[in-house]
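Hey, I was hoping to borrow your eyes for a little while. I've been staring at a protein lately and its backbone has me curious. You're getting the sequence in one-letter code plus the fold written as tokens. Would you mind checking whether the tokens look sensible for this chain? Here's the protein in full, and shout if anything looks odd to you:
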Amino acid sequence: MDYYRNFFESELFKKIISLLLLVIILISIRPMMNLLLLTFMFSFILYGMQNYIFKKIVKLIPINRTGITFAIFILLASTIVFVIYKYVPILTKQLLYIGVQLSNFDINNYEGVINPHIREAISTNIQSYVVAGGTYLIHSVTNIWEFSINIFIALILSLFLIVEKDTTIIFLNKFAFSKVGFIYIYYKKLGKNFVNSFAKVIETQFLISLINTILTAISLSILGFIK
């Protein structure tokens, strides 16, 4: 009996229980995973910008963190609305056009252009691949609008999380002194490690994206694609 009691009270058993519970939670919220990841990403970005601006401005202008958060939120939301309003319809139109063209593709229309031997060799598979690609692009249009809606929902949720950050922390800290305190402590350590790793990944990805955008813009300008 002492052996089993010691095992159930051991750190190993507590970690196993915490990990199994985490797996069950992740599986149960799998359909909402994209929304949760977007919410976390926006919360991370907004909170980082809030801290940076607060440290720079607080000595010059007496302003609280909530005001900074709302200002950043309005700026970010306006930017996202502008991008979606201007570019998503264009992207949707282009994807639909390409999807329809691929879905209606018929290799037999190119008999005089493609070598007969090559056409015969690839005609068995290329038709199905091209049609499947066109269908995928058409379905992608729906996914674009769903993703846009998720962005707005995630942005609003991240705003509430940051504004009510202190209240949320006080509420969560109460679990540390409950019977399931070991689960809270384990998740807290896991969360800190995840946030630290995520911060490095975000910084790296942002730097790569910035460099890639600059190089692409320069290359397109050299090739004559100024617009």
